[in-house]
Design goal:
Blueprint (H helix, E strand, L loop, with lengths): L2 H15 L16 E4 L5 E4 L1 E6 L2 E9 L3 E4 L4 E6 L5 E2 L4 E5 L2 E7 L15 H12 L13 H13 L13 E4 L3 E6 L6 E2 L4 E7 L2 E8 L11 E5 L5 E9 L4 E2 L8 E9 L12 E6 L3 E9 L4 E2 L5 E7 L2 E13 L2 E5 L8 E4 L3
Parallel strand pairs: 9-10
Antiparallel strand pairs: 1-23, 2-25, 3-20, 4-14, 4-19, 5-13, 6-8, 6-12, 7-11, 8-9, 11-13, 14-18, 15-16, 15-19, 16-18, 17-18, 20-24, 21-22, 22-23, 22-25, 23-24
Amino acid sequence: MSRRRLAVALTTIVLVAGGGVAVTALGTPEHKKSQDRSGLPPATAPVTRGDLSDSSQQDGTLGFLGERRINAGATGTLNWIAGTGSTVRRDGRLYEVDGRPVRLMYGSEPMYRTLKSGDKGKDVRQVEENLAALGYTGFTVDDEYTSATAAAVKRWQKSHDLKQTGQIGPDQIAFAGSALRIKEAGAATGDPVGPGKPVLIVTGSERVVRFKVPVADAKSAKTGTKVSVRLPDGSRAPGRVSGVGKTAKPGDDAQDKTPKIEITVSFDDPKKVDGFDQAPVTVELTGETRKDVLSVPVNALLALPGGGFGVQVVENGTAREVEVELGMFGQGRVEVSGSGLREGMKVGVPSV
């Protein structure tokens, strides 16, 4: 690569790192717009007209949203747990202690006490919301546990062959924000368990993709950015960036410790996404698109002696330098404009 092309390559890196669209200051007035050269380049490439996008591809990993522990809510012997890889939804069994099942209910507050008539709080509202969702009604959904609430709890207990006490606590239910996927067991059947001891390691049931980008490129993956994910079976699934990490961490590659930010992608229709947990995928970030522009390969650019950039146009067995203005970089090409440029022209490029 010539010194001038090397200078262009280094300058291009700076331009791309600074953002998807780059416009550079052009040559000084003393530099001619077009200058003939006798030397022909080793290879040529055409000037093309069409749409140019600054979209990029990132290597990601298919996984599930979040990870947390489910601790035992009662003392006794663990005699059943939900199977690894299974999904537990509202009112589904998570585990059993001494033959008594603990079921999943939806809510953000933990189940930390046994509720009875007269109690008040957010956990009361969560219990009532779940009872109502399951069809056990007859009370007002609020923060107060009334006799009507207790009656509904008794009906729920009866449906599951439990002792009908009208009280409900962590020995009967556990709260999570949504359906759960069982990642792995935190204890084995036959183990003694008690409050605070882990029983299950779970994640959300929604599939997501995670990948990392250098801090300098993080703005290309803002929350809400549209993406297309190429799945292990070759199919594509649309999605959006749903989470951007707040802490930069060095890369895992021993040869590249560039600080990176973790990005999370949620699918538009997660139910249609299939594949093994931790399977590799490719994330295509949808960037800006410039319509109907002229572009050349990035390595066709030359650093002009008077400043700015140009390309070496080859016509009729001769070569001449033409100064150009730069626009968007994307897909290994750069948008160019300038006097005398047209679609189909041949411009010089390195042979390798």
